[in-house]
UniProtKB/TrEMBL annotation:
This is Crotonobetainyl-CoA:carnitine CoA-transferase CaiB-like acyl-CoA transferase. It comes from the Bacteria. Keywords: Transferase. The lineage of its organism: Bacteria, Pseudomonadati, Pseudomonadota, Betaproteobacteria, Burkholderiales. InterPro entries: CoA-transferase_III_domain, CoA-Trfase_fam_III, CoA-Trfase_III_dom3_sf, CoA-Trfase_III_dom_1_sf. PANTHER family: SUCCINATE--HYDROXYMETHYLGLUTARATE COA-TRANSFERASE. It comes from Ottowia thiooxydans.
Length: 406
């Protein structure tokens, strides 16, 4: 039995944020129906690298799509047609959750907005994920991840200082705004579901903005500004509040050190061959080390250059000093800890034979995550779902196909 066994999700979303949230609900056991446009489907079916089958031939599936659509059943419906809108409303009648990430107010014209679907199902938890939210001066604007990274302040604290080589604001290397909003969406949906089932008996509407989500996720760094009025510095791999907490060049690469307390700093100093640094009045506490970083870091850097990354990593690990190499993905998925935690696995797939997956990191003790469905082909489950959920027969399905509703 899975955590969300029996929960039904209608996923009207596309691209990253909404599908990411819906996939996590599927991982937890929900029955997720993904509604896509006939012929084209989710935009990310055309984005990313093509998946190859066992013979090395390219399939129509893409790395972007298979990264956030496992566990779902795909139904193609043309919601621009009244008959397609009626199908979605029928599916919403016995659903628990709807997720959509159209522009603010876009679904009103199709009669698929919260007010409309609430009339047919007042128990519905309806989550709208949009760039700027359902209200405010930017609510009508489209938006994509780089905008939310830049407008949230994230890029202002990411990258090296302007005066350093390669200095200037940098984008985080993945769609962090989308994925962060997806996590907030799951939390909000589960909270609303509990309120419905334990308190009110009715669903509710969730208005979630990617910009808001990214501002919130900056957390303690944003709070540094609020309590000081000063823009937090952009320091590359260096922490502005903890020291040493950064990358260092070694003889054959780079290692990252994250010293979180004075005991760990003393252990680091011993392994570097300079135990006296731990009692130096400039470095005895973390605030002092951060304040005197310009004196401390060059001394540490000089020592790290004398040995290789693996040598240093093994030494510091044995001494209890938090350290680690900067891994490429070949190293990540070969790492014995990642292998032990089963963070990479394969799912049987209709056209590719199998597809690789990055696992859900949550480890439940009683209701483990189960991976029962590979990311679906476009419209793979249209007939199955409409027969199962709506009781349609072959004649009705044929009529819908002829009208190009499905």
């Amino acid at each position: 039995m899975s955590s969300l066994n029996g929960v039904r999700v209608l996923d009207l979303s596309r691209v990253f944020s909404g599908p990411w949230a819906a996939q996590m609900l599927a991982d937890f056991g929900a029955d997720v129906i993904k509604v896509e446009r006939p012929g084209r489907g989710d935009d990310v079916r055309q984005q990313g690298l093509r998946v190859r089958d066992a013979q090395g031939n390219e399939t129509r599936e893409t790395s972007s799509f298979i990264s956030m659509n496992r566990g779902k059943r795909s139904v193609t419906v043309d919601i621009s047609q009244p008959a397609g809108q009626a199908l979605v409303r029928e599916l919403a009648k016995d659903s628990d959750i709807v997720i959509e990430n159209f522009k603010a107010g876009d679904l009103v014209r199709y009669g698929l907005d919260y007010a409309s679907l609430k009339e047919v199902n007042p128990r519905l938890v309806y989550c709208s994920i949009s760039g700027f939210g359902q209200s405010g001066p930017y609510s009508h604007l489209p938006g994509y991840d780089p905008l939310f990274q830049s407008m949230s302040g994230l890029m202002s604290i990411t990258g090296h200082a302007d005066e350093e080589p390669g200095g200037g604001p940098l984008r985080v290397g993945y769609s962090v705004g989308d994925i962060t909003a997806g996590f907030y969406a799951v939390s909000a949906i589960l909270a609303a579901l509990r309120h419905r089932d334990m308190v009110s008996g009715e669903g509710q509407y969730i208005d979630l903005a990617l910009l808001d989500s990214q501002v919130a996720a900056i957390s303690h760094v944003g709070m540094m500004y609020l309590v000081s009025g000063q823009q937090p510095p952009r320091l590359g791999n260096v922490s502005p509040i903890t020291c040493p907490w950064q990358s260092f060049d070694c003889a054959d690469g780079q290692i990252v050190i994250a010293v979180g307390n004075d005991t760990q700093f003393a252990a680091l100093c011993r392994e570097l061959g300079h135990p006296e640094w731990a009692t130096d009045e400039r470095f005895v506490t973390n605030p002092l080390r951060a304040r005197n970083r310009q004196a401390l870091i060059p001394m540490i850097s000089e020592v790290f250059l004398t040995r290789g990354v693996q040598d240093w990593n093994e030494t510091l690990e044995a001494a209890g000093v938090p350290a680690g190499p900067i891994n490429g993905f070949e190293d990540v998925f070969a790492d014995p800890q990642i292998v032990h935690r089963q963070m990479r696995f394969d799912l049987p797939h209709t056209s590719a034979g199998s597809v690789p997956q990055v696992a859900n990191p949550v480890k439940f003790s009683a209701t483990p995550v189960q991976y029962d469905r590979a990311p679906p082909l476009l419209g793979e489950h249209t007939e199955e779902v409409l027969k199962e959920r709506l009781g349609f027969d072959d004649e009705r399905l044929s009529q819908l196909r002829q009208a190009k509703v499905i």
